[in-house]
Amino acid sequence: MDVIRKIGHDEIVEITTPFLITWHDGKSRLCGDFRALNSYTKAEKYPKPKIPHSLDNLAKAKYIIKLACMKGFHQNGVKPNSMKLLRIIRSMGIYEYTRMPFGIKIGPAPFQRIMDTIF
C-alpha cells in the first residue's frame, strides 16, 4: 500500500505544501501543511461515538480486546482527481498522497465510518 507517489518531471504542478518534522533522535517524518486546503474544505458531518453508550456496551462484553489502528487514515484511498491537492515538496522531489493523509479536515469522518462498520 503506497501512501505517496513521486510526481514525474513532465507533470504540471500547481500546488505543493512543504512540511517536515524532525524528531529529537534525528529521524524525520514527511507531512503536509494542509491548513490552506482545509480553509476551503467543508467538513463532513458524521457522529462521533457517544462515550456513555460505549461504556454500556463495554460493561456487557464477554470478551475485551485491544487493537492498534496503525496509520488509520492511510487505510482510506484518495480519489485520483484529489491527489493533485495533496502534493508535498521535499529536496528529493514532489510527491502526492495516494492515501488519506493526517491533518486533512475530511479525514476523521471516513475513518470513523470504517470503525463503526468494523465494530
TrEMBL record:
<dbReference type="Pfam" id="PF00078">
    <property type="entry name" value="RVT_1"/>
</dbReference>
<feature type="domain" description="Reverse transcriptase">
    <location>
        <begin position="26"/>
        <end position="119"/>
    </location>
</feature>
<dbReference type="InterPro" id="IPR043128">
    <property type="entry name" value="Rev_trsase/Diguanyl_cyclase"/>
</dbReference>
<dbReference type="InterPro" id="IPR000477">
    <property type="entry name" value="RT_dom"/>
</dbReference>
<dbReference type="InterPro" id="IPR053134">
    <property type="entry name" value="RNA-dir_DNA_polymerase"/>
</dbReference>
<dbReference type="InterPro" id="IPR043502">
    <property type="entry name" value="DNA/RNA_pol_sf"/>
</dbReference>
<protein>
    <recommendedName>
        <fullName>Reverse transcriptase domain-containing protein</fullName>
    </recommendedName>
</protein>
